[in-house]
UniProtKB/TrEMBL annotation:
Its EC number is 6.3.5.4. The lineage of its organism: Bacteria, Bacillati, Bacillota, Clostridia, Lachnospirales. Pathway: Amino-acid biosynthesis; L-asparagine biosynthesis; L-asparagine from L-aspartate (L-Gln route): step 1/1. Residues 1-147 form the Glutamine amidotransferase type-2 domain. Keywords: Amino-acid biosynthesis, Asparagine biosynthesis, ATP-binding, Nucleotide-binding. It catalyses: L-aspartate + L-glutamine + ATP + H2O = L-asparagine + L-glutamate + AMP + diphosphate + H(+). One of its GO terms (biological process) is asparagine biosynthetic process. GO terms for cellular component: cytosol. This is asparagine synthase (glutamine-hydrolyzing). It comes from the Bacteria. InterPro entries: Asn_synth_AEB, Asn_synthase, ASN_synthetase/amidase, GATase_2_dom, Ntn_hydrolases_N, Rossmann-like_a/b/a_fold.
Length: 512
């Protein structure tokens, strides 16, 4: 007998799977997805994920073989953790807090992660901030049998450029594939809204969906406010638009809530805005689309246009989208510094896998395997769950990545534009001014807010606390903060990254 012990996710091709596996289509979503997992395991065994599209992490117990089988989807859109106790038991689940409550878990800080965190601003790789607690990485499955743990990789990103197609051919394939995917992302009876920024990804998803309403966040500071562009896009597409105005008071007040629900520190300031957006959207819908995935697949970041210039040097420094503190600075501010703990080591295996590929493919692969899993998907999953909102990401799909994996890099970026083929596809349903709008990123006015004494009092408190004394040279981190407040706004990320760690530590090791 097979039992579903743990499951988080949404299986897109459920209808096809039900027909293939002989499952009653009239079952509730919860019942049918459990049946799909059980029957898929019985039919395809460890290769079951090859037949499934969607977002998922799960654990199955095989009573006959006394075996636990746990699997995380190809891109890591849903988290999965495990912990071996001193008496030889395995604790596991999709929530760290649930594992912490179980007998045998010993809560200890893995201080080594702090050194990596100060550069990356998120938790990269399989280790976590809790000693002994590990992440099951994307595209892997775990087997626990007779007290023995085995982890195997069933999927990894691979790139095989196809030079036979034109730009229009690639755009047509992207568009037809999204047309194929969108009907699977929701059932006819589900009411779905869609997050919308000023960018092409969320605009394209909205245009291809039947969502009647789009949701966005805005600020009083006009130069940071994308919601004006988002509302214009919604109107062009004939959809309603709900704007959540975010104030600095709201932003800073919710930081402890975010760090607690994130379960590990995250120094991405947009996560706070995303949380406020989730909370506001959850007031009028329970399901929402979001556009994550396309940037990393199709060359969406402006820095990707420098890929050729970086060349072979990439493997000496490129560890993903963020790298905000160099080693000499960390050595200066940390009380414990280990010269062998280097961010580039997290990406070492990826560079070995991508040997011989062009520089853009290497950068994309690093971001797909490290940045997406450690920052973007973690944020989407944790904060939507905390709000009681389910987020579905149509562009994060193996069928979409399959196109990107075959597309030559010149159709992803050129000297003038990023995400060239993807934008060309989007222009089939969006005005050119939207499809080819310059990427702004999910910008937040924190670089000006945090310098304001009306809002930064908690930052000052923690920078001068016993917690800070435990890990940092307090004088050194306050020099960084003073330099930032004094006008060096480039330091805001360093201040924010230190602050978010201190808030998280206070939530998990002082208050609880």
């Amino acid at each position: 007998m097979i039992t579903v012990k743990e499951y988080r996710g949404h299986i897109r091709n459920w209808e096809e799977l039900c027909e293939r596996l002989g499952i009653d289509l009239s079952l509730s979503r919860e019942e049918r997805e459990k049946e799909i997992l059980i029957k898929a395991y019985q039919t395809w065994g460890y290769e079951m994920a090859d037949h499934m599209y969607g977002m998922f992490a799960f654990a199955l117990w095989d009573d006959e073989e006394k075996k636990l089988f746990c699997l995380r989807d190809q891109f890591g859109t849903k988290p999965f953790y495990y912990y071996e106790t001193e008496d030889g038991q395995l604790l596991y689940g999709t929530m760290i807090r649930d594992i912490m409550k179980q007998p045998g878990f010993v809560k200890e800080l893995n201080e080594e992660m702090l050194q990596l965190y100060l550069s990356l601003t998120y938790v990269a790789g399989e280790n976590t901030f809790f000693r002994g607690l590990k992440k099951l990485m994307p595209g892997r499955y775990l087997i626990w049998q007779n007290g023995r743990l085995t982890i195997k990789r069933y999927w990894k990103p691979e790139f095989h450029p196809d030079e036979s197609k034109s730009l229009e051919d690639w755009a047509d394939e992207i568009h037809s594939t999204i047309q194929e995917i969108m009907p699977e992302v929701k059932t006819a009876d589900e009411k779905v809204e869609s997050f919308l920024s000023g960018g092409v990804d969320s605009s394209y998803v909205l245009a291809m969906s039947d969502a009647e309403q789009a949701d966005g966040c805005g600020y009083e500071e006009e130069r940071f406010d994308e919601s004006v562009l988002a509302e214009k896009t919604a109107r062009i597409l004939g959809r309603k638009f709900s704007r959540s105005l975010i104030t600095p008071e709201q932003f800073f007040d919710i930081v402890p809530y975010v760090m607690y629900n994130m379960e590990q520190p995250l120094g991405d300031a947009s996560a706070i805005v995303f949380t406020l957006g989730c909370n506001a959207t959850a007031e009028h819908t329970k399901i929402c689309y979001s556009g994550e995935g396309a940037d990393e697949f199709f060359g969406g970041y402006n820095m990707y246009r420098n890929a050729e210039r970086y060349g072979e040097n990439l493997k000496t420094f490129y560890v993903g989208n963020t790298n905000i503190m160099k080693e000499d600075e960390k050595k200066k501010i940390l009380k414990k510094y280990d010269p062998d703990v280097l961010p580039i080591e997290v990406a070492r295996e990826i560079y070995e896998e991508t040997e011989g590929l062009d520089p853009l493919s290497k950068m994309s692969d690093v971001d797909i395997q490290i940045w997406l899993e450690g920052d973007i998907y973690l944020n989407v999953d944790k904060m939507s769950k905390a709000a009681g909102l389910e987020i579905r990401m149509p562009l994060t799909d193996r069928r979409i990545f399959d196109i990107a994996s075959r597309m030559p890099s010149r159709y992803k970026v050129n000297e003038e534009q990023n995400k060239v083929a993807f934008r060309t596809a989007a222009a089939k349903v969006l005005p050119e001014e939207i499809a080819f709008r310059k990427k702004l990123g999910f910008i937040v006015p924190i670089r000006i807010w945090m310098a304001d004494d009306r809002y930064n009092q908690d930052v000052r408190r923690l920078f001068n606390s016993e917690i800070a004394e435990k890990f940092f040279d307090v004088e050194a981190i306050n020099e960084i903060f003073a330099d930032y407040v004094g006008g060096n706004s480039d330091n805001w990320r360093k201040v924010w990254t230190i602050y978010t760690f201190l808030v998280w530590y206070e939530e998990y090791f002082i208050k609880r």
